[in-house]
Amino acid sequence: MSGCLVLKRDGPEAMGAVGLEVLQRATQPVGKRGGSDASGYGPIDAHLAESLFLQMGEFVLRFESEEFGDEYEERARLELRETPEQKKEAVAKLRELLKADPELDVPYEEENFLLTFLRPTHFYPESAYTRMQNFFRFKVKYPKYCSGLIPSRERNVFEQGILTVFPTRDHLGRRVLLIEAGKKWKPKQCTLDEIFKGVMVVLEAAISEPRTQVSGVQVILDMDGLSLSHVWQFTPGFAKAVVDWVQDCIPVRLKGVHIVNQPYVFNMVFAIFKPLLNAKLRNRIHFHGTDRQSLLNHVDAKCLTTAYGGGVAIPDFPGGKLCDLLSNYDSHYELRAQNGYTTKK
After folding, report:
1. Where does the CRAL-TRIO domain start and stop, copy by copy (predicted)?
2. Cα 119–chain centre separation
């Protein structure tokens, strides 16, 4: 799967699509062992990518199947040291490191897989190898989050409407993920673990998209309506798992975490996480409250909905529709789950 959630303006008008619909599942499986996508990290078929989409007003959400163009190529060169020569050298070195590790079973012959870890580590193969080790060790250490993690099994969190991918990238090409962990989160209906797993499902898609590998992700946490009943769900153990995953495991360029509409009780939640944060992540967390201009200083208005000071108008829609779209790629997640450590680390 070389695609992430992407929303575009093209397509729906030509098809006469109106409102919000998800196309029926393709008749052929999305990914199988063997062929060009033996691990779930290869590019998806372009025709399949075009046929599966979620329409949100005038925007369309679908997986990208194409590589990035000149703008992203230049950004990759300037920010990630990515050149044809550096890419070839780093891929070869990382492949050697993986071949020498008999316990880590991963598709090291597939360049798409290696680039997933090389780009966020600026093409330093040793750093990519370390992050890859951490990524797969996390899966062994925390089976309650990672075992059997496929979109169709996480339908509940999506149906709550807690997770949204905004229609457009920001001015630097970054994906923007919204997590509404206040009013929309009802702990008796959806656990905190389910929210974390839902985020993992979305970012599992994001880490395979070349454009997102280059530009990264922005996360907005809307805490409006957070109460003590929510606060009691957070534990030091949960905080450690989340911080470990974000800081040391997931191969994504997390460019910013933006807290908005937070009430006073949010300080109790942040106090659990703060001691675990390294300086880099701590500096990328921004508290905006209800100050929309403060948020706009970091996230371009063209990619934000009107509720957050932007100009993008998308209708409310059943969150389960996003799960329907992601579930078409269940087999990719299943293939990926076969990678990792052959013995407990």
Report:
1. 154-316
2. 15
Q: Is residue 266 part of a domain?
A: yes
CB atoms < 10 A from the CB of 111, how many?
Answer: 17
Q: Within 13 Å and on the Cβ side, how many CA atoms surround 58?
A: 4
Look at residue 135 and tell me if it is in a domain: yes
pTM assigned to the model: 0.89
Residue 263, CA atoms < 13 Å, CB-side half-sphere: 12
* Residue 289: DSSP 8-state: E
Determine the structural domain holding residue 113 and report its residue range: 52-344
Reading the chain (345 residues) residue by residue, the pLDDT tens digits are 444 443 444 443 333 333 344 444 433 334 332 334 556 665 555 666 667 787 877 877 776 766 778 899 999 999 999 999 999 999 999 999 999 999 999 999 999 999 999 999 999 999 999 999 999 999 999 999 999 999 999 999 999 999 988 878 899 999 999 999 999 999 999 999 999 999 999 998 888 788 999 999 999 999 999 999 999 999 999 999 999 999 999 999 999 999 999 999 999 999 999 999 999 999 999 999 999 999 999 999 999 999 999 988 888 777 788 899 889 889 989 999 999 997 665
Tell me the residue type at 182: G
Query: How many structural domains are present in the chain?
Result: 1
**282 located within any domain:** yes
**What is the SS3 assignment for 144?**
helix
Q: Are 208 and 11 in contact (CB under 8 A)?
A: no
Pseudo-torsion of CA 289, 290, 292, 298, nearest 10°? 10
Render the burial of 36-60: b for 16+ CB within 10 Å, e for the rest: ebbbbbbbbbeebbeebbbbbbebb
Question: Any idea what the CATH number is for the domain that residue 160 is in?
Answer: 3.40.525.10
Q: Which residues pair with 258 in a beta bridge?
A: 220, 286
d(CA 112, CA 131): 16
Q: Is residue 3 part of a domain?
A: no
